[in-house]
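Recall that a protein's primary structure is simply its ordered list of amino acids. Everything else, from secondary elements to tertiary packing, is in principle encoded there. The following example makes that idea concrete.
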Amino acid sequence: MNFDPISSEKFQANWKPRFFTIFGGQALSLFGSSLVQFALVWYLTQQTGSATILATATLVAMLPQIILGPFVGALVDRWNRRLVMMVADGLIALATLVLAGLFWFDLVQVWHIYAILLVRSTGGAFHWPAMQASTSLMVPKEQLSRVAGLQQTLFGLVSIVAPPTGAVLISLIPTQGVLMIDVVTALIAIMPLFLIAIPQPIREQTESGEHKTSYWQDVREGLAYVAAWPGLMAILLMAVFINFLLTPTGSLMPLLVTKHFGLGALEFGLTDSLFGVGMIVGGILLGVWGGFKKRIVTSLIGIVGLGFGVILTGLAPANMFWLALVGMAVAGFMNPITNGPLHAVIQATVKPEMQGRVMSLISSAATAMTPLSLAVAGPVSDLVGIRTWYIFGGIVCLLMGAGAFFVPAIMNVEQNHNTAEAAPSPTLAIAD
């Protein structure tokens, strides 16, 4: 098969049917992956009842994204991104197929699940930056915020639909049957990539067709590019700190529902559902509206609103569970308002041949604090109370979002990337 890339201009001349065909395949694959996640968590819960095993599974699934992030992006920028996505999806499907076989022959052990989660996460570490970096070449710049809104809507929809669907499927078919659904959806995601050529960034090559820069030079260049961009560095530090404070709120929610409100599993499910509904509404709004012309303004408003939603959840008295649901809906709504424009800023501003490195570095940095935050949040919440973590985290998030309006480096993030552009980088020539 010919993997020669199409030019960005030619793709964008008729981008909607091509892009949304690929997007639709990826959406199905995301749904399948969510079913697998539900099935495996439920299996581990039923078979072991161990919080340690569940926490370890979560950590194992995060490690490749954290450790490989700074290095994967350079490979994504060097290789054919279309092929990277196909191989990554194929690797995920193969790993899931192996696990389905272990379930089928009743051979599965906990360490098998850990190993498969590790392989699946490794595939995801390559797939996500390749897809995000390709999106900026497939979608016109003025449409990137709307597309980001649609992506956030998809995440919200999957978060609502996948758990109950998984629960129904688990009651009707064995675990290996649920896993096979993910295999099928992964193959469906690969098919459009066989048929549709996607743009590839142009990189400088020698006369023999080799890259003029080594892999390690590319890695260092990606780090230097991010470090030399004042606005991006400031936003990245904000993201790391906000993730540290807010990520544990999801893990603490079952305890908040049961210990503070004195309620059960149904009400806990409602918190997830309201968050997902908020994400869908926020994503649709962003997809239709596109946000303010200055994208960072939209994101900062989203951060302020996100903090407000978390504060509401933490402040809700024991007899006002509905207020916590409102807080979760507000937080869900503000999630795409925050993330969508930020992704669009990067996709519209970063040079195409650098996007794989920048995307993976941001993802790695933002995720890196998650294990530490989860380790800290438990003991601290036991000491000062679960609600205190929500209130403190929400207040800091709100203040950081509001304070960022007075930081020139952040407000001018789409302009001060020129500092990073001044750093040495490969010129454009022949595509891979």
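Residues 205-209, 422-432 have pLDDT under 50 and may be disordered. Residues 15-48 form the longest helix (34 residues).
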